[in-house]
Amino acid sequence: MQAELITIGDEILIGQIVDTNSAWMAVVLNEIGVKVKQISSVSDDEAHILAALADAETRADLVLITGGLGPTKDDITKKTLAKYFDCDEFVTHDESLKVVEQIFAKYNRPLLEVNRQQALVPKVCTPILNQVGTAPGMLFRKGTKLFISMPGVPHEMKHLMTASVLPLIKQQYQLPAIYHQTILTAGLGESFLAEKLTAIEERLPAYIKLAYLPKLGSVRLRLSTTLEASPVLMAELDAFADEIMATVPEACITKGDLPIEKVILDKMAQKGLTLSLAESCTGGEIAHQITQHAGSSKVFVGGGVTYSNSLKSKLLGVKQQTLESFGAVSEETVLEMAEGAVQNFGSDYAVAVSGIAGPDGGSEEKPVGTVWIAVANKHQAKAKRFTFGKHRIQNIERATMAAFTFLFHFLKEQED
How far apart are CA 374 and CA 383, in angstroms? Predict the structure, then answer.
């Protein structure tokens, strides 16, 4: 089963937004056994869209299209699809119109004719009800091929995919089963992991593949097979996963496809432990990663983005003498930040981060990318220096991942 993804919109091509839709769709399609053949981004231009559709038809069984379904003049996807499928007649999809009316009534906004036209669809398509937005999805058939158009708004696309499109694909096609066993690692780079796991990779049977999926500060190791599930096969996948974890125990966080902050939250929730944060150079990114998970309030009590030295002193109790003698980016300061968070925020554990994210502000002693991270509880505190690169956003992401990794190992030490 081959699929192609087409994203439509000038905003993608000029870099105004990042195409996160395709990445998410590729993941969920892979999970049900659909292989993505190609991903394309095209402009809001009729000729360009028509050419992309024709090319995709030659390569794929399933073509998923996102974007260009809004109410403004630059949203031309619907009319272009009608042209591609030789349809001159549009009809109102009554269920979609009801949703549009309900949305505008909910927010007490006037319903304009241009908004009503959102419920118009080419007569040859099968409408797919969008219960969280104003533009319905549209399904077109051409022989054995399916073309499905969805809104580009991520939460609307995900709703349509989850509620309608994925069930439809599974019903329409005989798909191979794909089974994964994932291990999350942190602290070792992809090449170092590959070197340590060479002997295991050489012993993997042809029907089990090992993939390395790196991000800043972490690597997911994914064992995959497309064979029909059996207790023996599942046991074999588990055995290889356990062997990998035993080979690189210093890097392994968990067996399972979970982000590290979720692993930490679950671990702390099980033990009734609480966590607070004292962030400086990460600017609240650590808190953001934590609070995106439902139930995080069971563990996370809050924290402070103590960017200035004065706030480090007022909120966290960092001594003025410490700041003057050692500076904000120092072991001494970050330890006092973490200890102050535990005491002042009333948590069992705390993480503190202070660094130079860049691109300026560094020195010979403390270059851009220097980050100090501390973890603490009521009895102990530890700090560690990290040296990242010169790119601000990457430094923030790396510091966030390093903070979670440091906390994970600190919690593990306390257990031991």
Answer: 4
For residue 148, what pLDDT is reported? Answer: 98
Q: What does the pLDDT read at residue 139?
A: 98
Residue 263's Cβ-count burial label (10 Å; 0-12, 13-18, 19+) is middle
Decide: 4 and 36 in contact? Cβ < 8 Å.
yes
Fold of 260-415: Maf protein (3.90.950)
8 Å CB contact between 99 and 134: yes
CB contact at 8 A, 355 and 371: yes
CB 282 within 8 A of CB 396: yes
Non-local CB neighbours of 402 within 8 Å, separated by 6+ positions:
217, 371, 373, 386
The burial of 415, by beta-carbon neighbours within 10 Å (0-12 exposed, 13-18 middle, 19 or more buried), is given as exposed
Fold assignment, 179-255: Alpha-Beta Plaits (3.30.70)
Beta 218-225 vs 179-186: how paired, if at all? antiparallel
What confidence tens digit (pLDDT) does each residue in 170-200 have?
998 888 877 889 999 999 999 999 999 999 9
Taking the model in full, what pTM does it have?
0.81
CATH class of 2-172: alpha beta
Which stretches of the chain drop beneath a pLDDT of 50? Answer: none
Beta bridge pairs of residue 67: none
How far, rounded to the nearest angstrom, does the alpha carbon of residue 108 sit from its chain's CA centroid? 34
Structural domain boundaries in the chain: 2-172, 179-255, 260-415
Residue 343 pLDDT: 98
Q: What is the pLDDT of residue 201?
A: 96
Per DSSP bridges, beta strands 252-255 and 275-279 are unpaired
Is residue 227 within 8 Å of 233, Cβ to Cβ?
Answer: yes
The C-alpha atoms of residue 125 and residue 359 are separated, in whole angstroms, by: 51
What local confidence, expressed as pLDDT, does residue 279 receive? 98
Q: What is the DSSP letter of 308?
A: S
Task: Kindly report the number of other CB atoms within 10 A of residue 85's CB atom.
Answer: 17
- The reported pLDDT for the residue numbered 276 is 98
